[in-house]
Each structure stands twice: as structure tokens, then as C-alpha cells.
Amino acid sequence: MLDASNSPVELPAIPGKRYFTIGEVSDLCGVKPHVLRYWEQEFEQLKPVKRRGNRRYYQRHDVLMIRQIRSLLYEQGFTIGGARQQLCNDSVKSDQNQSQQIVRQLRIELEEILQILKH
Known about the structure:
Strand content: 5-15%
Order of helices and strands: HHEEHH
Structural class: mainly alpha
Largest sheet: 2 strands, antiparallel
Helix content: 55-70%
Radius of gyration: 20 Å
Shape: elongated
Number of helices: 4
Strand order of the largest sheet: 1-2
Low-confidence stretches: 1-5
Distance between the termini: 68 Å
CATH topology of the domain at 22-92: Multidrug-efflux Transporter Regulator, Chain: A, Domain 2
């Protein structure tokens, strides 16, 4: 159920660990474990590592993704489908920005090489 207040909740800082259990992620993100398991089915970006006995181990990027999903659903009022679409759009924009940065950096480096070759 959604909070009646719809105001952002202050979440704890993410510790500098490599892997987190589902219980730890639940506490860090303010979401119950069964909701996390459901979101794994709904959001393809959310893929925790599974080890012995199908135990889930989340990495830092998973925790950040869960916080983003939580914000979209609980604070911004998106539906599951809308949140999924928003994450896909953000991913495409991020990929485009990275590509543009790489091209700019390559251009700068090539111009520097050209200047060296001219001298």
C-alpha cells in the first residue's frame, strides 16, 4: 500500500559492502522482502546474484535501482508499467550521454595527437 503522506522518506546510507542479503536490502530501502521478490519479476534491470539454496545477494547497483523503483512507485506515483517505461527511458538517455562523452574525449585526444604530429 502507498503511504498516505507521499513524502520522500529518509533512507539510511548504503554501507560499503559488496553484497547484501534480502533482509539488509529491505531495511536499506524501506521495502518488505516479498515486494523485492515481486519487483525482480517486474523489472528486468533488477537481477540479484543467486547462490546456495537460491539465496539472493544484492550488489550496490541493485540497491540503488531498488531505491529508484521505490521512488517512482511510492513517491512519484507511477504504476509498475509506467515505472518500467521510465527506467527504460532513463537507461537509453544514460547510454546516449555516455556515448557522447566518449566521442568528445576521443575527439580531444585525436586533436592533441594531430598537434603533436604537426610539430
